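Now for one protein, fold included:
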Amino acid sequence: MLFPFVRRKKTAPAPAQNAAPSRAQALEFIPVINSSIDVEHRDKGSCRLHYELALKPWFVRAHERLRKAPFPPQKKTLELDEIGSLVWSLIDGRHSVGAIAKTLGETYELEAREAELSTSTFLRELGRRGLIALLPPHDPSRREPK
């Protein structure tokens, strides 16, 4: 460098390709249920969800090599209380996250922000377990539920 006191202008970083959606955009997403979930309705408005545990493919291959037998499917059960069951019943492929939060807030007399936060946290946990997926509001691959 000939002139160490001369600095280049810093350029602004390029916008991220997969930037997280804004709060308003996130509330427009539509949750859909994984078709392999078995639902058992219980008394007092609760329900149980039975689903297969998704394991890492390398783990399944290693188990099959060591045991020389196919890996048996692992079943899990998730019990939902009355509030969780209400949210689960509203996941029909038509209601957005915001609409579900609004219904939850009206039913249990919650403030809008509290209902949105509770609903999004619950749906995020269901998505992490593979029980639901969130689709963009105008996704052409989305089919209308029957």
